[in-house]
Amino acid sequence: MLGYHRMFPKIPYGESNFKKIIEEGFVYIDKTDYIPQLEAAGSHIFLLRPRRFGKSLFLSMLEYYYDVARQDEFETLFGKLYIGQHPTKLHNTYPVLFMDFSGIDTDGGHDAIFQRINEKVDTYLLSFLRRYAYPEATQQEIKAKTSPAAKIEHFFDLLEGEKILFLIDEYDHFANSILADDLKLFQKIMGKGGFVRSFYEVLKTATQRGVLDRLFVTGVTPLMLDSMTSGFNIGQNLSLHEDFNEAIGFTEAEVSTLLHPLATHCSLALATLREDARLWYNGYRFNLKADTSVYNANMLLYFVKNFDHKRCEYPEPMLDENIASDYGKIMKLFSIGNRDTNYSVLELLINTGEAQAAQRRKFEFDKGFERDDFISLLAYMGFITLARKTFSGEIFVIPNYAIREFYFHYFKVELERRNQFSIPNHTLRLAVEQLAVNADFQPLITELERALQLLSNRDAMGMDEKHVKVLLLTLLYQTQIYFIHSEREMGHKYPDILLLERNPLKVPFQHLVELKYCKKGKKADLKEGWAAKQQEGIAQVQGYLQLPEVNRLRDLAAWVLVTDGETVEVLRVESSP
After folding, report:
1. Which domain, by its residues, includes 123?
2. Are residues 70 and 203 part of one domain?
3. What is the 3-state secondary structure (H, E, C) of 172-189?
4. CB 251 within 8 A of CB 290
């Protein structure tokens, strides 16, 4: 078995320590060619990316590159990488101060959060002083200070005449959690007079005195940039800059190197593997002029690490439950500002797949939180991404299938909350299982009718074919049985819904569904209109079934669903002779 595992490279999923990855022979996608570009861009840099994107590993790489205490390790760690062949003058020239603000418990109010952040700052400052052999007395002086700002101010006083590099990871992690729960508390902590603002004001003074020579900060959102840059206004935010679009995350070429061993071992077409990975994990673009979109690095690494080499099957599930849980927590941010406005954006995204807004570079909560702010926040979080530009603003789209699943899971939660009813997931799983195993649509139709009839008048007033389709998709997305396509282009035609087999699951039936909406009216008119809609749907489906792309689908059952917004009738359609 040992020889079997040696056939495949070690995948660094969940690993963010650069030294461990290099020394223990993990695959490393070389991003060191960005070091000269970062140095040329400025001395105080912010680079934001969505969660689980590879930011911590990038920061770890910078730490080992610049740390004066790691000089003897340079050749071992970087010799085979781009920067090892083309080092800059700054390599291994700085004492490095590192701080990571993830994992801070934000329960308990202002004083509890203050104490936890104070302790974290204390820990990192003392670690620096011990590492670079400062006297024990200096450590006691830091401990004696009672606030984060006071601690780091005294720290810089101790370093007077020296130059250091400061790396901050997940600078906004705790702030995002606070904001999702309590906007006023967020403003108190981050705003003028708040202890976080005071902390960053000290950094500005340290740059002016020359002690803080270089600063590199990563995080997810610019929620705190207003708080930070008001006191620290010399930093450069490169997050939306064209030249750094691919600095964090994987390009198509980089993904190919990771997928190639799987394709070779399993005799799979590399193009097929790439296409499936692209649908699930790619699609992020941070500047419209950038040449390419990028993959979420951790999502892709999960896929490669958990690929079933023995059976040549994709992981089940296709997304790590830890990542899913992480994004589920982020969904709390949907409650910031006007919840109805945010819901309308959510509804627009799952109906049309896109939304338009003027993208925010930073957020100013004292001026309110509007629609453009919410859409921009979704983009920074990775729930949508740039697609194109119009005269009135940027167009954002859902980047990939993994994120689309999150939307429909959350949309179900919001539907239930707004209309005060529950759609049991267990019942849905059983209903979709009947569809998959026996081509029996009726159990799912029963759940769809129940949901339609439970919708409040507010939501039912605007009911049309589009809304019914979204509700049906929402029910389908609560299961992991099918790969779901809405209006996928097939031979220049667009079937409403395709339910296709998703590796590694093998299902007896795949499905094509066309939905028709019949407006309510007089009983006689309704009967006539209903029949007309049925015939219209049957003709469309028979046309789809003639397409070569559809004809090639194995064990395909085709359906027409006709509804008036309350009742649903389903017909199975056979190919015309």
Report:
1. 38-244
2. yes
3. CHHHHHHHHHCHHHHHHH
4. no
Tens digits of residue pLDDT in 389-447: 988 889 999 999 999 998 898 889 888 888 888 889 999 999 999 999 999 999 999 99
Indicate left, alpha or beta for 133 from its phi (over 0: left) and psi (-120 to 50: alpha).
Answer: left
Pairing mode, strands 212-219 and 44-48: parallel
**What is the rounded distance in angstroms from the CA atom of residue 49 to the CA atom of residue 468?**
35
Indicate the residue type of 11: I
Distance CA 447, CA 231 (A): 55
Question: Same structural domain for residues 70 and 215?
Answer: yes
- Whether 179 is covered by a domain: the verdict is yes
Contact, 343 vs 418, CB < 8 A? yes
Give the tens place of pLDDT for each residue, 298-314.
Answer: 999 999 999 999 999 99
Domain count, the chain: 3
- Pair 63, 208 in one domain: yes
Q: What average pLDDT score do residues 106-112 get?
A: 93
Flag whether pLDDT at 458 surpasses 60: no
Is 4 part of any domain? no
Of the candidates 355, 441, 353, 447, the one whose C-alpha atom is nearest the C-alpha of residue 400 is 353
Q: Are residues 58 and 153 in the same domain?
A: yes
Q: Which residues, in sequence order, are CB contacts of 424 under 8 Å at separation 6+? A: none
